[in-house]
Amino acid sequence: MSVAQVKRISISDSPIPWLLPLVSLLVVFTIYPLIYNIWLSFHEFVPRKRALQFVGVDNWVQLWNDARFWSSLGVTFAYFVIALAFELALGMAIALLLDAELPGFGALRAFLSLTLVIPPAIAGMMFLLMEDPQFGALTYILNSLGLLDKSIPILATSSTALAGVLLAEIWQWTPFMVLIFLAGLRSLPTEPYEAAMIDGASSFQMFRRLTLPMMSRVIAVAVLIRGIDLFRVFDYVFVMTSGGPGTATYSLSLYAWQQTFSFIKWGYGATLSLVSLVIIMVLANIFIKVFKVRW
Amino acid sequence: MKDKDRKLYLSSLTDKLVRGEMGRRDFLRLSGALGLGAGALGMGLGPRPYLGVSSAQAQEAVQPSADVIAWLKEVGKPFAGTTLKLATESTPPSNAINSQLKKYFEEATGIKVEIEVLPLEQVLQKLTLDVASSLGTYDLYYIDQSWAASFSQDVFDPREQISAKPDLAMPNYNIDDFLPALVDGIAMYEDRMVGVPYDIPIFIMIYRKDVYEELGLKAPTTFEELYNNSKAITDKKGPNLFGYAGQMKSGHYALECEWTSMLWGHGGSIFRTDGTFSGNDEQGIAALDYYTKLKATMPPGVDGWTWDGQGQAVAQGVAASMLSWGEFFPYFDDPTQTKVSGLCEAVIPPQPIALRTVKDTGYGEIPGVGHQGGSSLAVSKYSKSPDAAWLFMQWATCADTQALITVLGGGTGPTRASVYDDPRVKANARVGAGTTRHLPVVRETIAKYMGSEPDLPEWAQLSSDTIPVSLGKYFAGGYGSSKEAMDDIAAQVGEVLKG
Fold first, then answer.
1. Interchain contact, B473 vs A258, CB within 8 Å
2. Are B59 and B10 within 8 A, CB to CB?
3. Would residue A48 count as lying in a domain?
4. Residues B124, B97 within the same domain
5. How many interchain CB pairs under 8 A, A with B?
6. Which domain holds residue A193?
7. Which of B13, B35, B350, B414 has the least CB density, counted as fewest CB within 10 Å?
8. Do B76 and B191 lie in a common domain?
């Protein structure tokens, strides 16, 4: 290619030369793996033959009849809904409290980002220790307050294990919501609030009639980002409970990982991952349509 | 500092550490100044109960014999420049070889050895990919005993290697020196030898002698005594000290290991001769009922512990006994690491109430209270340098290297009979870091009381998911009775085996 040709391409109006590097990366790291994953879901590794074998829709049929899949899907949905609700409510409440120019609030806002730099696996380990039935600080506090019976180990009891894992999740990711909501609150115009105050509106009325509608897009984006992340929960359950006791905290991602890497069922693991992807895509698109999220 | 002075100084530091006259931190600082890295002190991390104890033997003694080095120099010349790869779990032999010993092999032969230390499931993943692609990325395979069936056709039988290449055979390698029980339990699949026994973590009984003596108790010789002792301690010393620590994390392989020990000890087995699950028979139910009863004497957090939590419970003085991996013992004896240095004793596991024979079980299962989790080392058939790999394998598993691995600490039992009698190993049988004073018990347990899990391709799934997940559910109150739990496991195992 001559210098003139290169020059012509670089100054042309065509977007292709500029998009090509990004599209290439997308094809190599996203499109190809996705297509391979779909192909893999119709195959299975057969250890005795040392090869992948075409199995048709067997993996999909197995998935439909797999009680563990449905149980892990249920756990994932429960985790997703509870965590999102708490992070959303707490995030908004804390953001509203911090949206003021009081001494020390600037430092408080800065401290909020600290939890976000901790790897989730480490946060999981921290809560694993804090919820230890013998020496865990959190267990001790809950026992002292009479909120938890001493004979109940949080992470080893079916009815409390998911809540124990969710504590780590909510502790770590609520600040993310706070920071996004704070940024949104800071960008709101003051005029509507001034008008509302002149009209005698209460604080709650202003929050409901002004803040929430004006913040709806910011909230939608935050919910979308956290929602996608929550559906893929892996680190906390892996570190804190390994999915137990029984299958009380077994998430879909953990199940897919286990089938793929522990049991070398690459085809079935790919099928589980695909289902997870499809569910996330469907939910995200419904959410975008309903809440009219614009990028 | 001259090399001789450096070694003498290091010897004195090591001795002070062993005697508890020096803190681990000071030892690390001073030895670090001599150029001894943290890896050399066995600080490897991993899912195995290898806790990275310090070297208990003066550096002077940790040298390969001159004969071995001379042989390596002679036969290794044609392979100089070759690079070998091994993927292994973090085990005492692998860590000792990787951090301390492989340099001797590399210097003598010119062969470079790359050892990847990975979690067990990643080792399996890598070996499976290597076998599926036949690429020969890994020259040597670390084979957990439960994978022997799966990889039996992918590695060389060492007996064939010895006879096929006599010029490469190490003098006095003596393949018959490997403990016969280990060869049968770990390395044999049908009539093939799937490598040689490399590592042998095995369940032994470890208890706090001081607590037992204070309460007038004797080391348990039966399961009933174990329960009675444990209950007596918990009743009198709880909640500060409990009688027994288990490894009962739901869904974890650790839970399956402890359960099998109880199951075998009550005359049960995992499989019948027809290949069906037998944990739900009379003996199986009795075993689970016993396990439930014993759990009531354990600390409340036991449901969340693997062997790590179990070991920590004893090390920190929370529990007074455990039936678990023997390689914990040197860690307990390390005064810089635990509160119980010199207070623990090792004895053989409790005698079984009844014991099934191999003929009464399926898939080669060998009942025995001394549950073993051993592994073998083998040369891959897909290796591009099988001869160089064979040299390394012989060196890594010869008696001299095993003795060095043992005196470097780590606690695992040698897989060769002669190593137990090695003067270097015997000299370390004293209270202190890296002790070998538990090894006679380990040896006796291997010879007489060892239990081995069945060999079948589905065992990885059954042992680390189906069985421990349901047991975890049972202990969390998810079943109405032990019978209901075992019947459900039987049904699930049947489904898995159907495929």
1. no
2. yes
3. no
4. yes
5. 99
6. 65-290
7. B35
8. yes
In a shared domain, residues B154 and B172: yes
Select from B255, B252, B230, B226 the least CA-distant residue to B243. Answer: B230
Q: Is residue B433 included in any domain, yes or no?
A: no
Q: Is residue B11 domain-resident?
A: no
Shortest CB distance from A245 goes to which of B124, B301, B303?
B303
Does residue B491 sit at the A interface (CB-CB below 8 Å)? no
Task: Give buried/exposed letters for B39-69 (b at 16+ CB in 10 A, else e).
Answer: ebbbebebbbbbbbbbbbbbbebbebeeebb
- Considering the domain boundaries, does residue A50 fall inside one? no
CB contact under 8 A, A153 and B300: yes
Residue A243, H or E segment: none
Mutate which: B250, B467, B489, vs A, most A CBs within 10 A: B250
Identity of the amino acid at A213: P
- Do B192 and B215 have their domain in common? no
From first to last of its 499 residues, chain B has per-residue pLDDT tens of: 444 444 444 445 445 544 445 544 444 444 444 433 333 322 222 345 545 444 444 445 578 999 999 999 999 999 999 999 999 988 889 989 998 899 999 999 999 999 999 888 788 888 988 988 888 999 999 999 888 888 999 999 999 999 999 999 999 999 999 999 999 889 998 889 999 999 999 999 999 999 999 999 999 999 999 999 999 999 999 889 999 999 999 988 999 999 999 999 999 999 999 999 999 999 999 999 999 999 999 998 898 899 989 999 999 999 999 999 998 999 999 998 898 999 999 999 999 999 999 999 999 899 999 999 999 999 999 999 999 999 999 999 999 999 999 988 766 789 999 999 999 999 989 998 889 999 999 999 999 999 999 988 788 889 989 999 999 999 999 999 999 999 999 999 999 998 7
Bridge partners of residue A53, in order along the sequence: A44
Q: How far is A268 from chain B (nearest CA, A)?
A: 12
- Residues of chain B contacting residue A153, judged by C-beta atoms under 8 Å apart: 300-301, 303-304
CA angle B40, B61, B418 (to 5 degrees): 100
Verdict on whether the full-model pTM lies above 0.90: no
**Partner residue opposite A263 with nearest CB, options B122, B318, B460:** B460
Strands (E), B358-465: 370-371, 375-379, 450-451
Q: Are B291 and B463 in contact (CB under 8 A)?
A: no
In a domain, A31, yes or no: no
> Quick one: tokens of A243?
């999915």
Chain A CB within 8 Å of residue B122 CB? yes
B301–A contact, CB cutoff 8 A: yes
Question: Which residue's structure tokens are 């709806």?
Answer: A216
Do B242 and B181 share a structural domain? no
Longest Cα pair distance anywhere in chain A, in angstroms? 80
Chain A residues near any Cβ of chain B (below 8 Å): 45, 47-48, 50-52, 128, 132-134, 150-151, 153, 155-158, 241-248, 250, 258, 261-264
Residues of B whose CB is below 8 A from A40: none
- Cross-chain Cβ contact A133/B469 below 8 Å: no
Return the number of other C-beta atoms located less than 10 Å from residue B260's C-beta. Answer: 27
A34 domain-assigned: no
Tokens of A66: 């797999």
Q: How many domains does chain A have?
A: 1
Domain span including residue B156: 60-200+374-426
Residue B76 forms part of a structural domain: yes
User: Which chain B residues are closer than 8 Å to A246 by Cβ?
Assistant: 250-251, 469-470, 472-474, 476, 478
Asked if the structure places residue B145 within a domain, the reply is: yes
Q: Based on the domain organization, do B161 and B247 belong to the same domain?
A: no
Q: What is the CATH number of the domain that holds A93?
A: 1.10.3720.10
* Chain B residues near residue A132 by CB distance under 8 angstroms: 301, 304
C-alpha distance from A271 to closest chain B C-alpha (Å) = 17
